[in-house]
Design brief:
The protein has about 300 residues and is mainly alpha-helical. Helices cover about 70% and strands about 5% of the residues. The model has no long low-confidence stretch (mean pLDDT about 90). This is Sugar ABC transporter permease.
């Protein structure tokens, strides 16, 4: 009797394992073919010299040396990296800061708050290409909606995307408008998990909205903050679609909007304006981007997770 039961349980476990494997296999195949294999190929090709798209010889770390230490490539690399860092800082302060305030406002469940949740999240479902073209039209110096609105109060036309001092900020504003709803809903979900008894007790002790946000809610939504911070960092260093649509592949004007994604693409596949095409250097840039994103993400996750435990 016991042996029969053991055989039945073993057969059941075997069928369950087979069923789980059959469900996971298609996803694993896709991951290997379209993620792992291209990633490993980029690592390998970063150490080769290329003639077009054909590797011609092993050159070791020469491609990395060029993009990091040889002008003008190193200048372009550090300029693009600087803009990615600026983008991350701006998104953390303006996008996520605004998202925190919006999430707290939605938490108060004022009349119509569910409609406002939909309105806030609606731009997120739009394609980044559509958002880029939309804001490029809005910021047009002659017939754009922004300059037409400013003209009503006596302010002349401003070339938002044609001026080095305003181009990057304009693209960042479009990106914030596009993605603001995502961190808002993530932070709102974290706030909704905070016990109502805790909030009511703080209210009874005389805590106002500022104290409630900074001393009660902010520490208790640490897991949500971790998610938002990590995704913001990854997104800001993989930034490509909106800068490409609004400023072009060269990061015009004068490289003021250049980011690592644009620089990698035109280096690896060429550009009609620069005429430079080197797949080896492009692969080196891709490897560097992966190392930066993976390394900083791992360090940040360790620090932020430790902060969650301490809180």
């Amino acid at each position: 009797m016991n042996n029969g039961w053991r055989h039945t349980a073993k057969a059941f476990r075997w069928r369950r394992s087979l069923w789980i494997a059959s469900l996971l296999t298609p996803a694993l195949v896709v991951m290997v073919l379209f993620v792992l294999w291209p990633l490993l190929s980029a690592f390998r090709l970063a150490f080769y010299e290329f003639n077009g798209l054909q590797p011609t010889g092993f050159v070791g770390f020469e491609n990395f040396r060029k993009v990091l230490f040889e002008t003008p490539y190193s200048d372009w690399t550090y300029n693009a990296l600087k803009h990615n860092i600026i983008a991350f800082a701006a998104l953390m302060v303006f996008e996520n800061g605004t998202a925190f305030l919006l999430a707290y406002a939605l938490l108060k469940a004022l009349p119509g708050h569910r409609i406002h949740q939909v309105i806030v999240f609606l731009p997120v479902v739009l394609s980044a290409v559509i958002v880029g073209f939309l804001w490029k039209l809005f910021l047009h110096p002659l017939f754009g909606l922004v300059n037409q609105t400013l003209a009503l109060v006596g302010i002349g036309a401003i070339p938002w995307l044609g001026n080095e001092s305003t181009a990057l900020g304009s693209i960042l504003f479009a990106n914030i408008w596009h993605w603001l709803g995502f961190p808002t809903l993530v932070l709102l979900a974290g706030m909704q998990r905070v016990s109502k008894e805790v909030i009511e007790a703080a209210r009874l002790d005389g805590a106002g909205d500022y104290v409630l946000m900074t001393r009660i809610i902010w520490p208790l939504i640490a897991p949500s903050v971790t998610i938002v911070t990590i995704l913001t960092f990854i997104g800001s260093f993989n930034w490509f679609e909106i800068p490409y649509v609004m400023a072009g592949l060269t990061g015009s004007p004068g490289g003021a909007t250049d980011v690592l994604g644009l620089y990698f693409y035109r280096t690896a596949f060429g550009s009609t304006t620069t005429g430079i095409q080197d797949f080896g250097q492009g692969s080196a840039l891709a490897v560097m981007m992966f190392i930066i994103v993976a390394g900083v993400t791992a360090i940040a996750l360790r620090y932020l997770r430790r902060r969650e435990i301490e809180l």
